[in-house]
């Protein structure tokens, strides 16, 4: 734990284990120490039993340090907890700042979002206690990282008195059943995972409902991306027909959800059951009118308690207003495409600022991903629709090929035929290009908007923050496509990486 005059963070460990390997993080801890001019002490957690690196010396020319020129001291966890400390509660106002959460960076540089105490407590009590139905005898286990808003939501599980299960490790090590086994071991009532994890479980032909005792599991939550219809069927068949699928759509912006499920709500494959309690959720067309049965902008027409107080380093609120209220004055526009069905359920089809617009028809990237995820030759894909400077529109599909696969003309034909048959001919991309990897935010979301902006010619430094991307260098490969499609290969070039 780095102790300073600022809010302390979680205790830094000397390292961690992932997929059976140990990773030394003492260098990163030292870098954090150097960046905190008011540093008092660092509580050291010996996950790897490595000695703590000495605190860096204080820079005499820098800001004053409370401990003179030492730059703080290292304290072991045993030392920090040796003397019991009393619990002190300070009364604060409803709108007292609680924390700064950073947006994931899917649409550009992350935003520092400041939420308040009261709004977060209300929203989290509602989402966890009512919609997910957790409580003192119903443990919650939602697999997440500490840099995603879901971590904050999980911590709020304690508000309901529910036991909270935490796991620091890979979801597939030592075997693909790892998360399911943890749910069994701790009799978890609500398990939360990503749509990608459910797809991976299906691809691995897992049958957790048959192989494990999941009788305590009541709800299977999923968020972070649209959940395809076939995952609902897989849960029914391979996890259990009585386990409710709770697909949730929300965001770091409100550190809560807009639409989700409830114990009393019906479930339809490929759909989110209903707007959450107290959320005035609608889909609006370009004229600012609510629509049913057609795709529109996701808007919230009345305030939610956990909407941000303000953005960090946005003194006049200009960036805040531009982010949410510039399209429809006084109405929150979140930046997602949404469809409200006649029965009141919700379908989220992707980010509206990364929308695919083929011949004037708006398409959802989720429709294409749903097709690609079924192809064994492709391990991951990223689809981009970019308006180019010459007025042209380029719909391109970047693919990471599975081991042993090659992007031949035949495989290109197979991919395009599958998209045309299972989505529509309008969804078929102009080009399919093989890349080494797809970049994501730290929370696992594909960087559609930053890649689109690279294709449109924006410099890399302006489209994404290095700290917000899992593989920042991977973005560099997309700068080769600035301005549009690559030139056809020369006649004597036998390399097949781009196919039309």
Task: Outline the structure in words.
The protein has 500 residues and is an alpha+beta fold. The protein folds into three domains: 2-80, no CATH class; 97-350, Rossmann fold (3-Layer(aba) Sandwich), CATH 3.40.50.12780; 355-499, GMP Synthetase, Chain A, domain 3, CATH 3.30.300.30. Helices cover 22% and strands 22% of the residues. It contains 13 helices and 25 strands. It has helices spanning 26-34, 77-80, 117-131, 149-155, 178-185, 195-203, 208-211, 229-239, 318-324, 365-372, 409-422, 448-455, 460-463, and strands at 2-3, 15-18, 21-24, 41-44, 73-76, 97-102, 112-116, 140-142, 190-193, 219-222, 244-247, 249-251, 256-260, 274-275, 281-284, 296-300, 310-311, 332-340, 346-351, 356-358, 361-363, 378-387, 393-401, 431-434, 498-499. The strands form eight sheets. Strands 8-9-10-11 form a four-stranded parallel β-sheet. It has a four-stranded antiparallel β-sheet with strand order 15-16-18-19. The protein has a four-stranded mixed β-sheet with strand order 22-23-24-25, sandwiched between helices. It is globular, with a radius of gyration of 24 Å. It starts with a strand and ends with a strand. Mean pLDDT is 86; it is low at 1-10, 60-70 and 490-496.
């Amino acid at each position: 734990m780095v102790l300073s005059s600022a809010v302390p963070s979680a205790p830094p460990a000397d390292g961690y284990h992932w997929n059976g390997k140990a990773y030394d993080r003492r260098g990163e801890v030292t870098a954090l120490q150097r960046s905190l001019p008011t540093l008092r002490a660092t509580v050291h957690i010996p996950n790897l039993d490595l000695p703590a690196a000495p605190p860096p010396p204080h820079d005499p020319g820098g800001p004053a340090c409370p401990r003179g020129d030492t730059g703080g001291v290292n304290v072991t966890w045993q030392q920090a907890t040796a003397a019991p400390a009393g619990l002190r509660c300070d009364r604060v106002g409803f709108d007292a700042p609680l924390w700064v959460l950073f947006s994931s960076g899917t649409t550009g540089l992350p935003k520092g979002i400041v939420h308040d105490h009261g709004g977060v407590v209300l929203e989290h009590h509602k989402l966890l206690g009512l919609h997910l139905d957790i409580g003192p005898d119903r443990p919650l286990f939602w697999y997440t990282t500490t840099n995603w808003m879901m971590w904050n939501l999980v911590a709020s599980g304690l508000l309901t008195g529910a036991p909270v299960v935490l796991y620091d490790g890979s979801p597939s090590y030592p075997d693909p059943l790892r998360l399911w086994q943890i749910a069994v071991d701790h009799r978890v009532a609500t398990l939360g995972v990503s749509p990608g994890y459910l797809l991976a479980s299906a691809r691995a032909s897992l049958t957790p409902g048959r192989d494990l005792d999941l009788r305590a599991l009541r709800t299977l939550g999923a968020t972070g991306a649209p959940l395809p219809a076939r995952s609902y069927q897989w849960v029914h068949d391979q996890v259990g027909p009585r386990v409710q699928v709770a697909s949730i759509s929300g965001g770091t912006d409100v550190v809560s959800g807009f639409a989700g499920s409830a114990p009393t709500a019906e479930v339809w494959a490929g759909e989110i059951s209903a707007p959450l309690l107290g959320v005035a959720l609608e889909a609006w067309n370009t004229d600012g009118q609510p629509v049913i049965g057609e795709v529109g902008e996701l808007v919230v027409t009345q305030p939610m308690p956990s909407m941000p107080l303000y953005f960090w380093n946005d003194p006049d609120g200009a960036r805040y207003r531009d982010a949410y209220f510039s399209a429809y004055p006084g109405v929150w526009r979140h930046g997602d495409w949404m469809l409200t069905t006649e029965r009141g359920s919700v379908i989220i089809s992707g980010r509206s600022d990364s929308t695919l617009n083929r011949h004037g028809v708006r398409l959802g990237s989720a429709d294409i991903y749903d097709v690609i995820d079924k192809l064994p030759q492709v391990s991951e894909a990223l689809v981009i629709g970019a308006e180019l400077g010459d007025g042209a529109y380029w719909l391109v599909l970047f693919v990471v090929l599975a081991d042993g696969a090659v992007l031949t003309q035949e495989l290109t034909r197979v991919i395009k035929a599958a998209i045309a048959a299972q989505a529509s001919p309008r969804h078929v991309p102009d080009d399919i290009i093989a890349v080494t990897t797809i970049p994501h935010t730290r929370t696992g979301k594909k960087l559609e908007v930053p890649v689109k902006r690279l294709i449109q010619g924006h410099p890399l430094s302006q489209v994404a923050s290095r700290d917000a991307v899992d593989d920042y260098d991977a973005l560099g490969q997309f700068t080769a496509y600035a301005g549009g499609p690559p030139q056809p290969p020369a006649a004597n070039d036998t390399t097949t990486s781009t196919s039309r």
